[in-house]
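[SOLVED] Need 3D model of a two-part complex

Original post:
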Amino acid sequence: MNEGWLALLQQALNLLFSLDPEVWSIVSVSFSVSFAALVITLLPSMILGFVLAFGRFPGRWLITNLIQTLQSIPTVVIGLLVYLMLTRMGPLGDLKWLFTQKGMILGQMLICAPVLVAISQAAFTSVDRRAWETSRTLGASWLRSIWTLCRELKVPLLMAIVAGFSRILTEVGCSMMVGGNIADVTRNIPTAIALETSKGDFSQAIALGLVLLILSIVLNFTLGILRGKAEPRSH
Amino acid sequence: MANLIAQNIEMCFDDRQLFTIDRVQLSEGNTIYLQGDNGSGKTTLMKLLAGLLKPSRGTITAEGFAPLPWWRSNPLLGKAIYLHQHPYLFDGSVEYNLRYPHPFSDMTASDLNKRTLAAIEMAQLTHLCKQAASSLSGGERQRLAIARAWIMRPQLLMLDEPTSNMDKYSQQLVLTMISELQEFGTGMLISSHQACVLTSLCNQTWIIKNQTIISSAASVNPTHTGPINIQDSQYVIAN
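Solution:
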């Protein structure tokens, strides 16, 4: 049994280090789609997080709770929603994005945004109000002051980015439904792992799993280093 | 001459009225001692004048300042620099904090650099320049915050309990910087719950009492003209 596992691991490593085109095509689709979704969502989500943390307006409580709820909706449900929107009969059917990377990006944006908004809102809420006041009284514009706050909150905001990216890079449900798991087009790491496992081809599944594992280790250790440098502030 | 004029102000928090003001004016060239018990509203008044808070009722106007760019929505912000009782220092080195406001000043880069070097010298922060601001002691933080404001050579400056964390040595250093600003003509509002070395510079007093402000001539050494040495000071060293 152990020898079997070792053989599978060796095959998986061979696939990775021999730069197997199929494996690396899947990795490339996964990263390009998730990175695009993250980049498009990042700024608007952070701004919404800031507005929800500092703004006082009717509906703020409702929006905050809606976003908290959206975080916990299964990705397959979001996939179903996006599928219904993109299907030929749906409101966005004319875009013809179903089973394309654009459709996957749209779905991943809807999954990523609530995570980014919720964590950035929590980060902005926790910031010392004097940081804003000091920046403004010294003459900084509101835009520059927001940038200052982001700088002061770089660790929690980076954590939000890592959390959002991790969630979309590893989700299966939405990618499977909206992307359709088409080889070299919409097949990403999670859908490929699901497919290969169901076929019994574990070596490729393990190879792709290792990529996710290594990425997870790199991201979290980077965050750990940043967090380690951020000494507790004595105000 | 730059002025901040507060008229018919009422400040309430929820249902509690903090104070009302008929009219007060903070002008360049004036150094005002703001007195009041704990919770009387000294900090709130300063934040109102700095544009960091909005009054429940009444108006605060700024006169004699350079015209604002079109994108500035709050006409009071940045007019008078307000220094917190416990100053906030940005994440970074002492030098980063001193250079933070440079882009917001009208002075040339060369002048700003000269003033920064002078401020570091005056506040005795030379050996701490590269150190993280978060590692400074209470007195050093106050000196750094005051040095940061000093570099900007503000027209109006408000200091909230500025000597509360300072030993005699730090107070002397701060006194030098504040005196220099006073000679330049900076209008200052200094709050303190008890007389201290900085209040000796004041030529007017505002007292918050019974939810209103009484403005009067300073009772604490208003005729100060020469240099003050902290060692000879008759004033209470706060905390």
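Edit: Chain B has one domain: 3-30+42-64+76-187+199-232.
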